[in-house]
Amino acid sequence: MASAKEIRRKIASIKNTWKITKAMELISTVKMKKAQDSVMAKKNFVMEILKIFLKIEDALINFPIFSYWKWNKTLAVVITSNKWLCWWYNVGVMKKVNFYMKSTNEEIDFVTVWKKAANFVSRTGNNLIADFSHDFTDNIQPIFTKRISKLLRDEFLSGKYNKVVVFYSHFLNTIKQIPISKEFMPISSKDIKEYLSTIANQFYDIDSEIEKSTKTESFYKVEPSKEELAEHIIPIILDMMFFDLLLESKASEHSSRMIAMKNAKDNAKKIADNLTLKYNKARQSIITKEVSEITAWVESLKD
Questions:
Q1: Does residue 274 contact residue 110 with C-beta atoms inside 8 Å?
Q2: In angstroms, what is the C-alpha Rg of the chain?
Q3: Cα–Cα distance between 120 and 114 in angstroms, integer?
Q4: What is the DSSP code string of 22-70?
Q5: pLDDT: is 157 or 222 the higher one?
Q6: What would the mean pLDDT of 287-295 be, rounded to a whole number?
Q7: Which one is predicted more confidently, 202 or 132?
Q8: Helix pair 142-157, 226-302: axis angle to 10 deg
Q9: Any alpha helices (H) in 42-141, and if so which ranges?
Q10: Prediction pTM value
Q11: Domains, the chain
Q12: CA-CA distance, 229 to 283, in Å (whole number)?
């Protein structure tokens, strides 16, 4: 049995681990909430974009971003994290990529976001055409994500790829996140309308807002043409959609890390409690032994 001194040292070490994991859990909780709250910041913008989109929707039939190309080649975007300690978050996304490659047999080029994705693509020997691992922190800004979405649009519209697929972790709630593959391009006008409506519905009565907008239209004429307007509006919407995927991925990461740190904290507390019990038993054993020795010594004096 370990000495009381050794057990006391282990208890101190475990308690330090408990403090660290508790702090990391709290940090992840705050960061997860921040990623979720980012949706609120763009509610007005989304509503206005939806109004414009509904006016130009009938002119989008032959828009290039809605068309499949003839090549059987895919551009895959893999979004993970820069660090581990987030339970199965990264592993789940990587497994999803492996399953997709085995089940489709498509020729795939990769774009990676954050270090674990880049390491995964490099380790598996796949073709990496762009890596954005060092471009982002936890504080994701739209101005930086535009670089990635623009690259994806340019590569797709060049005709080299039949589609663009994004692999990331879909945030359901703080307990559950699901790794999925989402076809990002080509996209349909129906998909865009559904995306904008889903966000706007959380904050507005869409029918009422559109009715107000329609009444105002009689006071002015909009230029340029719907087709020219679409050339500017659709890229903005795609930028926003990709930005949302990154935010959702970050929320999933922080949620996974929060749960992992909570489990580690709870385990540390259990270990510390067990060690404390052992320490008390060891100390009681020492005290009992010392009392016995003193009693024996007193009895020997009487003799």
A1: no
A2: 29
A3: 11
A4: HHHHHHHHHHHHHHHHHHHHTHHHHHHHHHHHHHHGGG-TT-GGG---S
A5: 157
A6: 79
A7: 132
A8: 130
A9: 43-56, 89-104, 115-123
A10: 0.78
A11: 31-258 (3.40.1380.10)
A12: 80
The residue assigned the tokens 């009715």 is 211
CB-based contacts of 104-109 (< 8 A; 24+ apart in sequence): 104/74, 106/72, 106/73, 106/74, 107/72, 107/73, 107/74, 108/73, 108/74, 108/75, 108/76, 109/73, 109/74, 109/75, 109/76, 109/161
Tens digit of pLDDT for each residue in 117-154? 999 999 999 999 999 887 666 677 778 888 899 999 99
What is the spatial distance between Cα 89 and Cα 100, in angstroms, rounded to a whole number?
Answer: 17
pLDDT: which is higher, 35 or 17: 17
The answer to whether the beta carbons of residues 149 and 130 sit under 8 Å apart is: no
Amino acid at 237: I
**Cβ pair 275, 11 in contact under 8 A:** yes
Structure tokens that stand for 87 in this block = 């339970």
Per-residue pLDDT of 42-63, as tens digits, reads 667 787 888 888 888 877 777 7
Amino acid sitting at position 260: A
State yes or no: cis peptide before 142, omega within 30 of 0. no
